[in-house]
Amino acid sequence: MISIFRRLITTSLPPSMQPPNSCGSSQRLLALAQQLRLYKPPPSSWDDDSEEQRIEESAGKVVSQVGFAESNTPIAKDPEKFRPKRAAVLICLFEGDNGDLRVILTKRSSGLSSHSGEVSLPGGKTEEGDKDDGDTATREAKEEIGLDPSLVNIVTVLEPFLSKHLLRVVPVIGILKDKEAFKPAPNPAEVEAVFDAPLEMFIKDENRRADEREWLGNKYLIHFFDYETKNKKYMIWGLTAGILIRAASIVYQRPPPFVEQNPSHNVLRTVDKHSILP
């Protein structure tokens, strides 16, 4: 896995992801931005829906539980039944007062109909008019926590993840140009709290636990990270934890010291819009 992270290949970026002259940040963040602009995610089985061979090769396999990368979790694909809706989340990084690299997170409102009270990254479903995934992620971040898109320098996107509800989620990495200029203004209908956590935490074994689960006779792990800040405790798990494990592995160019244990199935033949994972 580490060879993928170190194989940085130049790639063209859409207009909203073209780098400005400066991140307005430290030399460390400037170097990180340059490193991440060169990152190219591994090919996804959904990159070309017209490739019948890929469709046939994917037949009979299923998507993983929350938090595993799409390229590692092929799913039974019937073009007439399964076209996952697209979403994007923002992995907004900045340098903390102690020099550590930190990521902005939210705790979802307890009044939401799905994933209420859970920790998540700012983001949401793609809407008509969004130019690209970076546009989706920054638009949603502004709506949810009041983060001005002009404060975020989008540097790269990671491979898509498939959520528990079979939503195709694209992680977008951005660097906060001026952390002092960002004054969190959470939308109470969506967000209960805004906080930040050290990114490196997600490739360490501290404060981590895992739950082994089984689906269709195959075992896999869901990772949980317990984090406390300003006398408040948060649990970061599932899709959000999986995305941050991947992001931290790429940023720090080393794999986590723990086993991720992705499932591998060859039994489910069809998936439709009503499918949901345990």
Automatic annotation (TrEMBL):
UniProt keyword Lipoprotein present: no
SUPFAM superfamilies: Nudix
The entry's keywords: Hydrolase, Magnesium, Manganese, Metal-binding
Alphabetical list of Gene3D superfamilies matching this protein: Nucleoside Triphosphate Pyrophosphohydrolase (3.90.79.10)
Biased composition, class Low complexity, residue ranges: 112-124
Needed cofactors: Mn(2+); Mg(2+)
GO CC term (a single one): cytoplasm
Top-rank taxon: Eukaryota
Gene Ontology molecular function terms on file: coenzyme A diphosphatase activity; guanosine-3',5'-bis(diphosphate) 3'-diphosphatase activity; metal ion binding
GO biological process terms on file: acyl-CoA metabolic process; coenzyme A biosynthetic process; coenzyme A catabolic process
InterPro entries per the UniProt record, alphabetical: CoAse, NUDIX_hydrolase-like_dom_sf, NUDIX_hydrolase_dom
Source organism of the structure: Rubus argutus
Nudix hydrolase domain residues: 84-240
Region of interest (Disordered), ranges: 112-140
Keyword flag Aminoacyl-tRNA synthetase: no
Name of the protein this chain belongs to: Nudix hydrolase domain-containing protein
Cross-referenced PROSITE patterns: NUDIX
